[in-house]
Amino acid sequence: MATTAPTAPQQSTPSPIHRWWLLAVLALAQLMVILDGTIVNIALPDAQIDLGMTDGDRTWVVTIYALAFGSLLLLGGRIADYWGRKRSFIVGMVGFAIASALGGLALNTEMLLAARALQGAFAGLLAPASLAILTITFPGGKDRIKAFAVYGAIGGGGAAVGLLLGGVLTEFASWEWCLLVNVPIAIVAIVGALAFMKESRAHGNTRYDIPGTLLVVAGLASLVLGFSRAEEGWARFDTIGFLVAGVVLLAAFVLVERRVSNPLLPMRVIVDKVRGGAFLVSTLTGAALLGGLLFLTFYFQIVLGYSPLHAGFASLPMTLVIMVCATVLSQLLPKIGVRIPMTVGPIIAAGGLFYLSFITVEGNYVLEVLPGVVLLGIGLASLFVPLQNVALAGVEEHDAGVASAAVAATQQIGGSIGTALFTALYTSAIASYLADNPPAPTAQLEAFVSGYSAAFVCAAALMLVAAPISFFLIRPSKADLLKNVDAVHMG
């Protein structure tokens, strides 16, 4: 039965000083969740040797985190709405720290994969609570634009920061510290949450949508499994079966959500043209970014022979470019709106990924990699700074958590599907190269480069699709960026 709680009396939002301290706590949580999608990338070669992982297991260390994260985000968003966003934030942070410790102490591949899945599950509770708290802490005005610019820049730059931090920890400590480092970060964030965060929750109908949860988790998992099986052949029965099952289950999820009184993902959240366009762009960006960076990392270490630290620093220019561009864009958005940067950004990012497809075995970093990384950073900043603000504009307070979850879910599911898809293309390109070329001393490395290039071209194509979506669908007025959202019930 649905429970109906009386409307809680409204309370003021945190004081201006406390709001910015709270933003720092939320930004720290966002950084931890995002960088964990890539921080293990650089550590993977070392972890693979220590734990005796296969190449398939190596990919699953990345994919299973994104899959668990993305498929449970909608449920996590509803739990945050109904159970309390502060409470969900703290429980998610504690669980994430415990899972990270288990991963850092992993004795075998199975233990590491289980820990990564557990990390993703708790991130699915933590991330929507964090973004919902940000939404209600900065309900409107120019401060909202600045806050979302910071949050968005971390969303774009956090992946690259993960590569750098992973390189430092792997080089000077061990690959295990790429997971253990989350424990002290979580402790700081929990202390900050207790000091600056107020509880908030939705009121009214707070019954959970169990059928919708089961359908969306099973549907998304089937899609990712289907793309991962494509590595061994697109015409395989299990590949086709998982992909078809995923589409059918997600279609059933949409039908259920349109009929139940308490949907996990209310259709009102996604049918808005601007918001729906933002979700599509987020999915494509997640696929291109997370999948593309994984293969760039492999290129640095496997082909060019970079140390983990050197590989991390090789990714640093993208982070710096994102931070600089985010600062500039946060000042320009109230004047130029979001349509221009969100249309031009994907084109620039696609150009950077396409440029990276021309890498060679010799690997001149300054000529073959740096321009592509810089272009990718400019394009991603143009997208991430306005994206989350646009996706959450006009969302009712009752749906703040689930709408926040939908934003993060699209990026994470896009990333897991992109990683699986690019891995299949990468494997196919290697096999084709070795079949078409005579044996040679550098044949294996040339085959790897051929695979990486195929992945970058595919990522560029996905990124390019986001440009017309932004141009035709994302058209909020400048006034919308400054408009206050509905009053927030604090309890």
UniProtKB/TrEMBL annotation:
Main location as per UniProt: membrane
Segments crossing the lipid bilayer: 20-44, 59-77, 89-107, 113-136, 148-168, 174-196, 208-227, 239-256, 277-300, 312-333, 340-361, 373-392, 413-434, 454-474
Topology versus the membrane: Multi-pass membrane protein
Subcellular location(s) of the protein: Cell membrane
InterPro entries per UniProt: EmrB-like, MFS, MFS_dom, MFS_trans_sf, Sugar_transporter_CS
Keyword field contains Ribonucleoprotein: no
Alphabetized UniProt keyword annotations: Cell membrane, Membrane, Transmembrane, Transmembrane helix, Transport
Domain Major facilitator superfamily (MFS) profile: 22-478
Protein name, UniProt field: EmrB/QacA subfamily drug resistance transporter
Source organism of this protein record: Conyzicola nivalis
